[in-house]
Design a protein that fits this description.
3 helices, Aldehyde Oxidoreductase, domain 3, 7-stranded mixed beta sheet, 148 residues, alpha+beta
């Protein structure tokens, strides 16, 4: 299950909804990860742009990996502005056995950081500033140059 939300995520609502969705499916482990925007380097928050077709494909590939281990993935991410001390990213793995879920949540979050087609901007004085130094190059992508 992949959810995209405008603005900060309502962590309690999303996690409760996911738990209600999976609690009677005979899974033994529900391992969530909640990403929280930190107040650092003078930013007021973060802002996100998402390329949904590639994100859906990336997520579906991971969902297939999960199915191979009798597990299931859930993910929510923000579009637009997310102030400091609120959440922009929640992921969870459910599986019959905890070891599968614990390993998969780590691998999933690390791959998300490296390969998901989500562009991050710092919010500084009410403006979006591309966070180039904290961004990763996606295979096959590039930036258009204004002077090209």
């Amino acid at each position: 299950m992949l959810e995209l939300h405008n603005g900060p995520l309502s962590v309690n609502t999303i996690l409760a909804s996911w738990y209600d969705h999976i609690c009677d499916k005979n899974y033994g482990a529900f391992i969530p990860f909640v990403g929280i925007v930190r107040d650092e380097d003078g930013i007021e928050g973060l802002s996100f742009d998402i390329y949904e077709p590639i994100l859906n494909s990336w997520f579906n590939t991971w969902q297939e990996k999960a199915r191979e281990q009798n597990a299931y993935l859930l993910m929510a991410h923000s579009r637009g502005d997310v102030p400091n001390h609120t959440s922009s990213y929640i992921a969870a793995v459910v599986s019959p056995k905890r070891k599968v879920a614990l390993k998969m949540i780590n691998d999933f979050v690390e791959d998300f950081k490296a390969n998901a087609p989500i562009w991050k901007y710092d919010l500084v004085e009410g403006k979006r500033v591309y966070a180039k130094e904290r961004s990763h190059v996606l295979s096959g992508s590039g930036l258009l140059k204004a002077d090209a």
